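Lecture 7 notes: from sequence to structure.

We start with a single chain of 354 residues. Read the sequence below before looking at the structure.
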Amino acid sequence: MKLKLSQFDYNLPQNLIAQKPASPPDTCRLLVVNKKTEKIKDDNFFYLTAHLKKGDVLVFNNSKVLPARLIGTKPTGGKAEILLLKQINSSTWEALTGNIKQHHKLNLKISLAKNFFGTIIKVNPTTSIIKFNLSGPKLMAQIFKHGQMPTPPYIKRLVPQKEYQTIYAKKLGSVAAPTAGLHFTKRMFAKLKKLGVQTEFVTLHVGLGTFASVKEQDITKHQIHSEYFELDKKTAQRLNKAKNEGRRIIAIGTTTVRVIETVAKSPPARGGETEGEGAQFVIRNSMGDTSIFIYPGYKFKFVDAMITNFHLPKSTLLMLISAFANIKLIKKAYSHAIKKKYHFYSLGDAMLII
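Now the structure, written as tokens:
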């Protein structure tokens, strides 16, 4: 099926791009989209439990965001910016150093604070390898002390670390927040528990590729980014049990969707069956990289509903939710949200697709 990039475009007034989250975060607006009836309802996230029921399973991404943007100075006194991408060892990172000219990079020392600096020891086509003068916990302490949250360029303010981190963040590794989870507060978790909603956690470390624009006019030719994920055995067992009992699996964010759909497989064949014949999919514990690209035409294996934010035009995330509902319904929902002046993108309002 040929899908044109233009099918995932829309015009958003600049004033609807959220610069700050709702305060408290669980008081943001919630747009409820029903896939079957195609009805759209305006609500408040605080009343999320009104759309849930006992036995539902909410699955969260517990990846923790690294304050990966470091601002320093070159030996000349000029500004140098480092965006940490991937840890290589206890003292060395792969990073973006885009504001430093390519032929000046190798062996360049970047001062970041008193007794804290990094030296570029290798230059790749698009990234650099930086060795710091500190390692292990001491290096990480300095990164958290001096680093800034790597918020997207459409956010025009310095976002405090606490504001761009889910309250359940546990495993360090993301360079962007799994933003659908930012709406959840301690009191919301208390409400979920009181209702009898089960909560589970997986990990997917969000990479910069999340924000990479799709260039191909035929989106099926797009090569999506790869991201590291983990789902442990006990979580897999509990999710399979819930699915077998007919309970809804509700993914919090597109990152969680990517994990679940990556590890959902047909069960082994039994007797004279063909593999997966007459049986639902099962979750299998796994870890590694996923480059799953979900767009309209994809058949979801395990996820029954999702909570997500409003995504950028022509983005792979918008394509994913358009696959979960349908392009026409998502366009209708987005037009409604714009008309009703919802706040969009990372720090904006939420959408529940059921």
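The longest helix spans residues 327-339. Keep this in mind for problem set 3.
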